[in-house]
């Protein structure tokens, strides 16, 4: 679909140098509709009467400069992606452009025109995805409440589509994923969009209680059934009757308890601890685990018959490191949340800080990211979160050869530092992904065919990174 949209894309090139405008036009006009302007004022007039997807603007021009034009575009035409071109501009000016919202940056003179085209293609693809997400969200918002789910990645979109289909059904659901990915949020999302949302949603972490207490908590107990049972008490199954019960970390239960849970799923009845009669319950079960249940069944840690009872519908939530495009949205949401909590004006985050966060492994997933942002907001002493506000462990987890604050960049001119960064970045990703080029392509956003050009340029042999 993107390929078809590219032909219709309209691009505005703003540069006071005729040669630059002509070179860019000749290289791009076969694939895009091109307009040019020789000043910021001329560009504004073009923008008023035309609809553009991308604007390429030089930063240094007579009269109103590129920064002023960038501010104007972001204020009046925020839907347009802006690529700034830096030739005579200082590093400070280029950094300021990125802070003001520039979407891409390229150095002048542009010797690699294919790189220019690649950057434009990336901007258009991102724009198309954003527009498509907005379209889908408009459709979903009319019928589907996903209020608490933050993320626009392809993986999250697929999960949302699946939840939209299964929420109205009454099937049992198994949610799997690493600790901190938001399994309970997804369970709550199913509940909110189900026909049971007028009854209770009750959640329990099965790994947080010993077997005897877990059984009492879920099934209830009769007075005198054990030492501390001083009165009758209904359990979570009865409390959630007509609603939804979320059983988190289901693999932490014992085989004996699993037999009792299987009976509930098969018969729809429970028996309180110390009770003599069965109680019928109507509860939708959503179970979750951070382990591979198939492996647990093979190890005989989990009953196979219970696994099949639970695994009617399976939702696998990917870790945050596999959907890095969601990190910016999550960071923005958490900054807003904690700025309010700590009575601070809503903070912004510096590009350097965001870059560090984007390159984290996030072993604790969304939960770890949330804690990191709370720490940073609490410590921030100005209107922007800077790297020094991050927790200490973030720096120990950040790959040293990705960080541009490393001493190895000191004293280098920008082109040399950029080249060194690119080499380190590619090598680091190849190491992390064990030489899996497809995975590197997905994480970096670089097409496979372009990656091989990078490998050649950076003297990287994929086979050197592949481990059995």
What is the number of E strands? 16
Overall structural class, as computed from helix and strand content, comes to alpha/beta
Task: Give the CATH architecture of the largest domain.
Answer: 3-Layer(aba) Sandwich
Number of helices in the DSSP assignment: 20
Major sheet: order of its strands?
2-1-3-4-5
Major sheet attributes: 5 strands, parallel
Average pLDDT number: 84
Give the distance, in angstroms, between the N- and C-terminal Cα atoms.
37 Å
C-alpha-based Rg, rounded: 28 Å
CATH superfamily of the largest domain: P-loop containing nucleotide triphosphate hydrolases
Determine and state the CATH class of the largest domain: Alpha Beta
Question: Secondary structure elements and their pairing?
Answer:
Blueprint: H1 2-8, E1 10-14, H2 18-28, E2 33-37, H3 40-49, E3 54-58, H4 66-76, E4 81-86, H5 91-99, E5 104-107, H6 113-143, H7 154-166, E6 173-176, H8 183-192, E7 201-205, H9 211-219, E8 220-221, E9 233-234, H10 236-239, E10 244-248, H11 255-267, E11 269-270, E12 279-280, E13 284-289, H12 293-298, H13 304-310, E14 313-316, H14 327-341, E15 348-349, H15 351-358, H16 365-379, E16 384-385, H17 392-397, H18 414-432, H19 437-444, H20 448-458
